[in-house]
Amino acid sequence: MRKIKKALQKAFPKVELSVGLDDRGILTLYGECASWQQLVDIGHKAARLPGVENVVNELRVAGQRIPQKDYRPLRDAGRSRGLAADVDVLIIGAGITGCGIARELAKYKLDILVVEMSGDVATGATKANNGNIHPGHAEKPGTLKARLNVEGNRLYTRWAEELHFTLQRCGAMGFITSRWLWPALLYGYIKALKNGVEGVQLVGGRRAVELEPGLKRSAIGVKGAMWLPTMALVEPYQVTVALAENAAENGVRFWFNCTAADILTEKGAAVGAVTTKGIVRSRIIINCAGVYADEISAMAGDKSFTIHPRKGVIAILDKARSPAYDCLCDHVTFETVRRTLQKSYTKGGGMCYTPEKNILMGPSASESPDKEDLSTSARELAYAMGRGDETIDYSDVIRYFAGNRPADYSEDFIIGMSPITAGFINVAAIQSPGLAAAPAIAGKVEQIVAAAAEERGEPLERDPGWEPLRLPQPEFRHLSRAEQEALIRKDPRYGRIICRCETITEGEILDALRSPVPPASIDAVKRRTRAGMGRCQGGFCQPRVLELLARERGISWTEVTLKGEGSRILLKSNRPRAEGGADK
Amino acid sequence: MKRVEIDIAVIGGGPAGLAAALKARELGAEKVLILERNIELGGILQQCIHDGFGIHRFDKRLSGTQYAQLFIDAVEQSDIAVKLDTMVLEIGADKTIYACNKSEGMLEINSGAIVLAMGCRERTASQVLIHGDRPAGVLTAGAVQRYINMEGYLPGSKAVILGSGDIGLIMARRMILEGLAVEGVYEVMAAPGGLTRNLVQCLDDFEIPLHLSTTVTAVHGRKRVEAVTVAQVDGAMKPVAGTERRIECDLLVLAVGLIPENELSRAAGVEIDPRSGGPLLDENFMTGVPGIFAAGNVAVVFDLVDYVSASGEIAAAGAVNYLRGKLGEEKSRRPVKAGENVNFVVPQRLGRECGETTFFLRVSSPQKAATLSCCSGKKLLFKKRCRFLAPPEMLTFTADASGGDELVIALKEEAGRR
Predict the structure, then answer these.
(1) Across the interface, do B153 and A397 touch by the CB < 8 Å criterion?
(2) pTM (whole model) above 0.90
(3) Cβ-based contacts of A565 with chain B (< 8 Å)
């Protein structure tokens, strides 16, 4: 411990700090430093020291109040509601991780409840993800991230077949235009081989152009490339919705607007949680709370890591601007090599595109203390926009947004049964490549839950009624004219276009509104159907979606929200309406 | 798939489309069809309950709805076919239109000529680079207008308006009348974006302050708008540090410009003029694709509906002549150039024998007095003295522009009158 303190003091001589180290190698930092960035830097430095498994960062920043969520009123409110549910498995958080686990565990005879603090699935880090299913070549060999990334990438094929979401195996290529950069490609290739990336190849210039004809069009003298055929693209919220719907069809319950405020334990074992909807009894609790996972883990008595949110800003471009390449191409230059060698944790992303062929710029990467701060700034947008080629212009941007990556200080996934609290499973610090790893993470948690059940002498039993398939919903825009005609004949509601920019029909919106996990806000409808996602950003379709949402949910127009509680769009009616609240 | 054969298909049943359809029928086109995506004709005029429409055309001050109704009544009395709640999905290379609706399913419409009249859409918060949070309570002026005037709901209680274009000014007054507080109108440019009469009638009369060279830089509030930050901008339109001011409000209304809605046109192969935002047009308002014409705000954003209707009639006359084979396949068209202090001119090119042609143009910067000139080489075709010119107000004139070479339209400032 003395050595650790000494090393930290040497690196940060001006910071007064004290440390504590437990027998698991969890280092706790106390003291005060000068800035939030320095606080994060100290945490990162500490996590790399020998003997340190992970870091709990209790440092303060001089003169800065770091926002803390106050759970007390939530806990009191939840307690006063008494017992609300008694289940076998409680999952906290309905992002890609929580929904993936729920879906996989649904194959057993288990009563599963997912609680989510926001009003919909995929509202945290998941929705602000760029949808890349990375091959797994970029992760440090030997890490959990590397292993689960490669495995997850492979498992996506099955998920996509069973759940009917769009998965495009576009492939990726890192190409060089200077022979002097072959060592960089070779380094990357060896790393990819070590990680077990399937199909990775080093190819010469001619073959590279064959694989990606776009390189010929742009007339770049490609000297060689690393080809990664397993690179794929998804819409992250579409995957999450598919998982949640399939889970719900197999009996999993979802409670939205429900915050977990305390974890209940007895004799070193989890027995339940206090949520804002009441007490939930459960002997298995799975913590998929994203940026709040450290706080949930601390509630379970297991304070073993700290999440420091790392904000990323992504810009979406108009579809009129089409991607130059079919695969994701990355020009490896001396500059990019230099940046990689800097070992910065704050690397952001470059330019890619979505399965619907909108170019995405970014994400940026910046440390920020507030877990719920999703604001954007000109500086962050400029960073995201600067990562593409010079033909990209601000006038192409139709929307930008931010997400917070739930990073810990070891910068690896934390997945496992808590050694402190039996039955409490952390699935934390799931940042990139968390989306790609999601199926493997779900599989790993399934094993952990199965092992725990085995240990208790109550092995998991398969549910014979489990249905892995989720039926595909029609997507009008992707059909041929003849198929569109047939669809409208079958159900005329597909003949009415609600969102003109993305060509989304009333039928598709009604399908979403009547789905097993129905959307409750305008943004939730947007994530399921794409209505409002186009260039006019809902200027035309928002009132029409609002009308359908109000009608289907049996609520008045003034109760419809943009993005959950507290975000009503219309404050009051300015006309006399019929009695009974059904005002339109 | 239902197949429809028609002489002229008009895409969009707003003021441009209505005028085009009526004119085409009047000039003898047999089968005219209006395709309208909404459940009624009239387009955006149906949410314009304020007055000031039709001053030029009818010498009357009508509301938008009254103005539209005059045309709708005429269409209803005619044998012009109308398909409502019908969305055009595609215009194919051979001018085949694919459209769909609930009752007829997919339609394949073959027409002799097409008049594009899809109007325009509003620019959004992301397009003017507003940062901060993305809560409920940030709406375009047109959306606010629809919610208040058509649906009957108030989307806020205290508003800040960004943009002094006409819709922003109209909505400032409208919100005051509906009992909302309007903190002010902010305009990034040094000059107002709307018509003078709207500045007087909508802002001055209601004591709503207008802040020029000032913009909204950030929105605050994670769920619902709680405040915005405004800042003054320098000559390069960059916010000036130290001039930021936080304004508490629960609604930010954006009136930050209109974009001609040319997605269908582009897909049909129509070439777009980056300056007007609409198709490159000739004297008949025909696009670069023979037989496809454009009218109204899809061609260029007009300031007055009277001109929108007029442009519809020009396009309709062109379409009828095209059907009759009277529009020659002219290979070389003469360019019309925007000269001194002219931002853009429509039409952008002319046939050799174009005859009497109506030009629409906007100035680049305000001028108290200037001489408008239209020259072909050294030959002066048209000259007119103009006063109080400002970029928001469209200038229009008609001149015989036949013969000669390229045309240059310019506005020379009158000495000593700045």
Answers:
(1) no
(2) yes
(3) 223
